[in-house]
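Quick one: structure tokens for this chain, please?
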Amino acid sequence: MFSTAMGWFRFVTIMEGISYVLLLGVGLPTKFIMGNGEITRILGSIHGGLFIAFGLLLLYVGLRMKWSFFKMALIFIASFIPIGNFVIDRKILKQA
């Protein structure tokens, strides 16, 4: 999995999706219900770093695989949906 750029991209896609779900499902409720913003700050930083890695790897893999701009834009937009990264991996990245 880690020997190719696509393998790294799939790994980062899944990790970014997990971090997003944790941020929305754990971080935000903890912040607003318990008044503790520390978890949100930590999860947000992790998610932000993974999102940047996701975007850079999307550009790199998309150019190497000669994906259309529309396909890369669709993958990028789908990553904003909380479970979109898992759909991306299942529907698009496993086929490549």
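DSSP finds four helices and no strands in the chain.
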